[in-house]
TrEMBL record:
<dbReference type="GO" id="GO:0005576">
    <property type="term" value="C:extracellular region"/>
</dbReference>
<dbReference type="GO" id="GO:0006979">
    <property type="term" value="P:response to oxidative stress"/>
</dbReference>
<dbReference type="GO" id="GO:0020037">
    <property type="term" value="F:heme binding"/>
</dbReference>
<dbReference type="InterPro" id="IPR019791">
    <property type="entry name" value="Haem_peroxidase_animal"/>
</dbReference>
<keyword id="KW-0325">Glycoprotein</keyword>
<dbReference type="InterPro" id="IPR037120">
    <property type="entry name" value="Haem_peroxidase_sf_animal"/>
</dbReference>
<dbReference type="Pfam" id="PF03098">
    <property type="entry name" value="An_peroxidase"/>
</dbReference>
<dbReference type="InterPro" id="IPR010255">
    <property type="entry name" value="Haem_peroxidase_sf"/>
</dbReference>
<dbReference type="GO" id="GO:0004601">
    <property type="term" value="F:peroxidase activity"/>
</dbReference>
<keyword id="KW-0964">Secreted</keyword>
<protein>
    <recommendedName>
        <fullName>Heme peroxidase</fullName>
    </recommendedName>
</protein>
Amino acid sequence: MTDIAMHGHGVRGMKREALHSFNGIGDPGKFGVMFPDLLPLHVGDDALFELAQAMRDQGDVGVDPDPAGDNEAIPAGYTYLGQFIDHDITLDTTPLDQQKADPKATDNFRTPALDLDSLYGDGPGIHPYLYQRDPTTFEITQQFLIGHTGASNNEKNEPIQSLRHDLPRNQVGHALIFDERNDENLLVSQTHLLMLRFHNAVVYWLKERQPSLQGIALFHEARRIVTWHYQWIVLFDFVERLTEPGLITRIKREGRRFYRFKKRPYMPAEFAAACYRLGHSMVRETYSHNRAFHPGSPRIANGTLQALFFFTGKSGKIVGELAPDAEALPPNPQQKLPSNWVIDWRRFFDVAGQGGENFTFNFSRKLDPFIAPSLHTLPGLREDPTEQQRRDANLAFRNLRRGVQIGLPSGQDVCRAMQIEPMSPDEIATGPDGEVARARPA
């Protein structure tokens, strides 16, 4: 089965010394634990898989979800901004079957800081393949490479030309980006592309206003501006939407209560393997992607989650020059991302210009234990899977099993340690997932 690294798992065999942040931190560090005195929760795989199967959102694969499950406070774009953020701060390259019970011994191949090392790599001097070359001098520039889509047709069968709206790719379709996980679904890849284009726009803006700023100094200033904007968005927009009102202001005023470190900040396993998995619950089964792919008509097709996996180089069928037929439609391999699959961001974020013919806004799904049907069978599952392969293709099971493997405590124990009233057994036992929990008490 293809290793779909939704969060945390990624490229094998990376050397730590080659993955340091461009800001001079030579060792991103290891994962850590916030509550080392709590006992780990022990649950067998059979019970975990039974619970995972019960954590399925209502509806079928490829079918528009019930609007009652939408979270109208959080637009759907924040789901994939959240995934992009995760890939910026965590990368555990340990295979699923080799997870350690001691997170403190596990390398984190991303800095836990919001420094966009997943975007910039180590800069144009160390990772030149991410950056453009000057067509006259052939020197590496301060701007990112941008890829082209393939010409296609719109919902009215009118031609759409090739556009500079994809990740840069090599001849076999692999994205030329520093973190391959940002090409595992089309929405996170378009989010990564958005950040590439933002950086390039900042470089152009600086050249116009500060012509004396050149070379690596220009790059550093552009990165500083982009990173500061990104950090502001994460703290005052993204986190504010996911937490109770006023939490950020209170933490800034009163300081941290539970997250402590002696020398260098670490990535808490309780966050990376548990709390931040909430993003999976936000995923929709279908999206109003643009004018061509949306729930209404006229359209070419619906914007299903499976299609969003398909149009990538990592999880899907963008195969570059390997494509046997560049004019073929799905499920045949694609030479390039078709231009009719470029995202319409107005449908995913609160931005100006919304509305118009066949316009539908996408909300994320509610934060609950349930995830979209397609995530219960991830891409890459073979036609005759073993029982273990079938389980590993279930994202809910992967999440639950990883938490047990690395020795996370129960949520109730963490609540007590934080002096928060935990859910009662009766509260936990509500809903289809609760029925499984009640039948199989830990």
